């Protein structure tokens, strides 16, 4: 029997109901029920939903059973889907990127990427080590292979920035699984990505994560002496596998020899993602993609695709006028950059998109109530007037929701988001956030297993279970339109 069928049997026993009684009460076919409970047949999702309703189990139990059903039906792809959905929910909920409880995404069974600690002795000595390094005024690159999930690295880096308001260049090396789907913990690479991402979001602008492929699923480090290191230009800090003890190496020749080996390691590895901090860099990324005929497959935004919400050049020119920064220099104009990405202004308003765009009901409502596009597009945006908001929604309806390629997520799938996410045909990702200080942080990733997991995620989102259908979405947009016009 599977975990799903075992859970069905358990719920029947807890409620004191037999298969025969439930069949009579619910109208579900008795043979189908018996086969489901004994693990001989996996029914359709609608059958499982009726089963839950007939047993009157609570919402938490219902979701647990549906998770087991999807896992059995879709296999490890559903594990990826569930993890990415929780990752996106976490990214939307995390107001303080430096919070100690950042690692909130649930880990898979058997995963070693769970919040791990360190002794206070190691913490104190590591902090002293870095203070000495920063006190030297050097701008050399630091290297480390600390496990991304260990809190010591993020915890210490955030403390240093708060104390000294100073950063340094850090190259971080860790393993990824070459084919995660053949291992028990198939979400390993996603976990590593999430751990590296939280370091970047904490404000480490000069953080560079590098990876190499591991084909064996990991090494047993318990019998290795000080397998983890953090190297500056002149010193080497070594840590035991359980982060309970450490030592510093000051021998100049030894440090120099180790540094040469580490530089070779990084030379033979690949950068996991690249940070983008200006709108001009974003334009360059999209220009490169267009040159190589790489097109978006799926996008996730707080609101519908901006090309379907803007009815003409005059709207964008009104929402994104040239502004001056505090130093007197002109700020980046998103309208001009959008035109440069599209190639020509008219291309920004085409409804003939061949990719799927997902958005949230909460994000669209936020635009209606405030006049500002949530997320990245609110960067230096003037709020739209009520008339402009009304025309935007009307234009969206006239495009038939982008020829029905624009889909609104159900609230239980993702209530709201401030994330801009795109998956391209070459499995690369573009991920962007608007930060609390009205700056934005974007990154591009080209690791195929992570890109494929996100592609699987979006393909699963197309199911009506996770998205509102066309009629539901149109009705919701019309309701918002009526609120504006009142």
Structural write-up:
A seven-stranded mixed β-sheet has the order 6-5-4-1-2-3-7, sandwiched between helices. A seven-stranded mixed β-sheet has the order 8-14-13-12-9-10-11. The chain has three domains: 3-74, lambda repressor-like DNA-binding domains (434 Repressor (Amino-terminal Domain)); 120-271, Endonuclease, Chain A (2-Layer Sandwich); 276-485, no CATH class. The longest helix has 18 residues, at 76-93. The protein contains 19 helices and 14 strands. The protein has helices spanning 3-15, 19-26, 30-37, 45-55, 59-74, 76-93, 120-135, 151-164, 188-201, 252-267, 279-291, 306-309, 313-319, 334-342, 361-370, 386-398, 400-404, 448-461, 470-485, and strands at residues 142-144, 170-177, 207-214, 228-231, 236-239, 246-249, 270-271, 273-276, 296-300, 356-360, 406-409, 419-424, 429-434, 440-445. Helix 5 crosses helix 6 (76-93), helix 6 (76-93) crosses helix 18 and helix 11 (279-291) runs parallel beside helix 14 (334-342). It starts with a helix and ends with a helix. Strand 13 (429-434) and strand 14 form a beta hairpin. With 486 residues, it is α/β, with parallel strands linked by helices.
């Amino acid at each position: 029997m599977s975990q799903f069928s075992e859970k069905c049997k358990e719920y029947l026993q807890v409620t004191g109901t037999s298969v025969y009684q439930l069949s009579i009460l619910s109208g579900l076919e008795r043979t189908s029920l018996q086969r489901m409970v004994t693990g001989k047949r996996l029914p359709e999702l609608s059958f499982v939903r009726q089963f839950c309703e007939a047993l009157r189990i609570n919402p938490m139990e219902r979701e647990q059973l549906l998770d087991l059903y999807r896992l059995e039906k879709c296999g490890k792809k559903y594990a990826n889907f569930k993890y990415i959905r929780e990752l996106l929910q976490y990214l939307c909920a995390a107001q303080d990127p430096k919070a100690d409880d950042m690692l909130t995404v649930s880990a898979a069974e058997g995963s070693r990427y769970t919040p791990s600690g360190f002794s206070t002795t190691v913490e104190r000595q590591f902090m002293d080590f870095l203070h000495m390094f920063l006190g030297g005024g050097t701008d050399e690159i630091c290297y480390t292979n600390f496990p991304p999930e260990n809190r010591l690295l993020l915890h210490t880096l955030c403390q240093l920035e708060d104390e000294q308001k100073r950063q340094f260049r850090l190259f971080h090396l860790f393993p990824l699984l070459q084919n995660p789907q053949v291992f028990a913990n198939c979400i390993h690479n996603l976990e590593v990505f999430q751990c590296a991402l939280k370091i970047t979001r904490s404000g480490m602008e000069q953080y560079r994560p590098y990876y190499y492929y591991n084909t064996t699923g990991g090494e047993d480090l318990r019998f290795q002496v000080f397998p983890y290191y953090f190297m500056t230009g002149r010193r080497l800090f070594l840590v035991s596998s359980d982060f309970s003890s450490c030592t510093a190496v000051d021998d100049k020749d030894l440090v120099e020899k180790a540094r040469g080996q580490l530089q070779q390691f990084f030379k033979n590895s690949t950068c996991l993602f690249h940070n983008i901090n200006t709108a001009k860099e974003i334009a360059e990324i999209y220009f490169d993609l267009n040159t190589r005929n790489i097109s978006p497959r799926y996008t996730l935004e707080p609101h519908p695709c901006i090309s379907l919400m803007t009815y003409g050049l005059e709207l964008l020119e009104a929402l994104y006028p040239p502004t001056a920064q505090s130093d007197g220099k002109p700020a980046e104009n998103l309208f001009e950059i959008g035109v440069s990405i599209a190639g020509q202004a008219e291309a920004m308003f085409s409804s003939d998109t061949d990719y799927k765009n997902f958005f949230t009901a909460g994000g669209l409502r936020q635009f209606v109530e405030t006049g500002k596009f949530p997320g990245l597009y609110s960067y230096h945006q003037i709020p739209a007037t009520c008339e402009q908001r009304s025309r935007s929604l009307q234009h969206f309806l006239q495009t038939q929701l982008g020829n029905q390629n624009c889909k609104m997520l159900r609230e239980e799938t993702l209530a709201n988001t401030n994330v801009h996410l795109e998956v391209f045909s070459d499995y690369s990702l573009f991920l962007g956030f608007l930060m609390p200080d009205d700056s934005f942080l974007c990154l591009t990733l080209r690791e195929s297993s992570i890109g494929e997991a996100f592609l699987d995620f979006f393909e699963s989102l197309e199911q009506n279970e996770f998205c509102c259908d066309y009629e539901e979405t149109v009705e919701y947009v019309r309701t918002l339109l009526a609120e504006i016009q009142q």
